[in-house]
Write a structure and sequence with these properties.
Mean pLDDT: 94
Shape: globular
Oligomer: single chain
Radius of gyration: 10 Å
Structural class: alpha+beta
Helix content: 10-25%
Strand order of the largest sheet: 1-5-4-3-2
Largest sheet: 5 strands, antiparallel
Length: 59
């Protein structure tokens, strides 16, 4: 499992490239679970201030 910081555009690109499985909206951030065609399962965290993070989940 790996986690890294991501700019807003990276989070948006990964979301668009994959299949969104689930979205949870919270007041300060949004959690998006994506199945990406080459990277596998990803958890995208997108903050309301534009900061974000990506977590690659092992199968």
């Amino acid at each position: 499992m790996r986690m890294f910081d991501a700019e807003k555009q990276v989070v948006a690109d990964l979301r668009d490239e994959g299949t969104v499985m689930m979205v949870k909206q919270l007041p300060l951030f949004q959690i998006i679970i994506v199945r990406h065609p080459t990277l596998g399962k990803l958890v995208l965290i997108e903050g309301s201030d534009g900061h974000g993070a990506v977590v690659e989940v092992d199968n």
